[in-house]
Amino acid sequence: MFNDHPIFVVMAVAVLAPLLAEIPIAVRAPVVVLEVVIGILVGPHLLGLVDPKALGGLLYYLQIIGTAAVLFMGGMELDFNQIRGRPLSLALVGWLASAVLALSAVALLRVIPDLRAPLMVTIALTTTSLGALIPILRDGGQLDSQFGRMLLGAGTVGEVAPIVAVSLALSDRYTTWQEFGFLIVFLALVGLVAIVGMGARPPKALALLSRTMRASTQLPVRLALFLMAAFVVLATKLGFEGILGAFAAGMIVGLATRGEVGEAFRAKIDAVCFGFFTPFFFVGTGIAFDVTALTRDSTTMLLTPAFLLLFLVIRGVPVVFYRNDLPKPRRLPFALSSSVASLGLVVVITQIGLREKSMNVEIVHALVAAAMLSLLVYPTLAEALLPKDAPSKRNSAPPVMPGA
Predict the structure, then answer these.
(1) Most Cβ neighbours (<10 Å): which of 168, 235, 376, 395?
(2) Cα gap 34→14, rounded to integer Å
(3) Alpha-carbon gap, residue 79 to 96, rounded angstroms
(4) How is residue 276 annotated by DSSP?
(5) Which pLDDT score is estimated for 196?
(6) Contact yes or no for 315/339 (Cβ under 8 A)
(7) Which residues contact 43 (CB under 8 A, 6 or more apart)?
(8) Is 392 domain-assigned?
């Protein structure tokens, strides 16, 4: 019906999803989940209002840009000042334990005939949605609490480590040592650009950026988007996935715009990315998702709840390392919150798996469905199980995931 107007459909869903999220019901889904679900509804496998191949695959290219925007905004959200020290060290240990658990789970999946469960599935199972955790903690007034700092650490490593792992796993252009060397060079360049961005602030340059931010040129916003594109190209040229470059660019821009001086700019870049680019990623994911495959294939039907449980086991079990830092009543809510999969990253990983023909379609559908369910189920359970003296999130706005 609207095959010639795919942008209209995506924008309509992008408006409808946050409106539905405002309906005052007991359990409200994150906006990005609603975007994916409504995208599934209007897609070719249900209502058929739009075809992802419409207009020569325009949605496909806009979805690629949306993917970069999701990872870029995820990088901007990082604030290492909040998690340095014990939260970060525990998060690293916990993620390594999760990686071991994920490898064991993937090994067990190999007993299923004709089912390819490669390293990509292992990485997907170790993700945690930092983008979902930040607004949840902020709305609940827990960002500066011990619980909040520990959870931010787990979310940060659960977002960053899988991105680096994906880039290294798929880089087949060079030898292992060359890949490692290029990664060091890339990270060193990221650090150098970040230091320059935070320290070198000539008055004339600052005056130019300040003046043009209120003009039609919007130079600061254009510079940020140029940096994102530049690092995507650089990462690709070095043999890594473009998502690593987008995430790194977001980290640089985020570090350079901390504090009150960057609030106006961050509001503008939020508007550009969240208001236009990221809906094409999440709604486009829903449009392309074949929901009927969940019911017509018994393997997918069984794998979806299995992956949902694996997200909890793999990312939740490392809570044992926090026994001296979190009181017992908060450990299960912590485990549940850590198990909220990064929907954005899982979708990216599965798309790469399909592109490389290294992942079964059944696994792709099951992983994405399980990631969506983790966003719906685990934060709700965590809120219900938090001690009553903890800040309540019942009257807060619904969580919105900027990146996962």
Answers:
(1) 235
(2) 9
(3) 21
(4) I
(5) 62
(6) yes
(7) 49, 50, 52, 286, 287, 288, 289
(8) no
Alpha helices per DSSP H over 116-258: 119-124, 130-139, 146-170, 176-199, 203-212, 219-237, 242-256
Residue type, 296: R
If one counts the domains in the chain, the total is 1
Burial class (CB within 10 angstroms; exposed 0-12, middle 13-18, buried 19+) of 103:
middle
What's the confidence (pLDDT) of residue 342? 84
**Residues whose CB falls within 8 Å of the CB of residue 35, separated by 6 or more in sequence, listed in order:** 13, 14, 17, 279, 282, 283, 286
Report if residue 122 sits inside a domain.
yes
Can you give the CATH number for the domain in which 311 is found?
1.20.1530.20
**Residue 308 included in any domain:** yes
Instruction: Please state, in angstroms and rounded to a whole number, the distance separating the CA atoms of residues 341 and 331.
Output: 18
DSSP 55-113: HHHHHHHHHHHHHHHHHHHHHHH--GGGTTTHHHHHHHHHHHHHHHHHHHHHHHHTTST
Give the mean pLDDT per block of 10 residues along the chain (404 residues). Answer: 76 88 72 82 82 68 83 78 84 93 84 67 88 67 80 86 76 60 70 63 62 78 89 81 80 79 81 86 80 75 89 93 90 91 82 75 85 82 71 42 43
The two structure tokens encoding residue 159: 């977002």
In whole angstroms, give the CA distance from residue 253 to residue 262.
Answer: 10
Contact 310, 108 (CB under 8 A): no
Query: Does residue 211 lie within any of the structural domains?
Result: no
Neighbouring CB atoms inside 10 A of 386's CB total 22
- What pLDDT is attached to residue 404? 44
Domain encompassing residue 331: 6-172+272-385
pLDDT digits (tens, 9 = 90+) for 71-111: 788 778 777 777 778 888 999 999 999 999 998 888 877 76
The full DSSP string for 295-319 is HH-HHHHHHHHHHHHHHHHHHHGGG
Q: Determine the pLDDT at residue 365.
A: 84
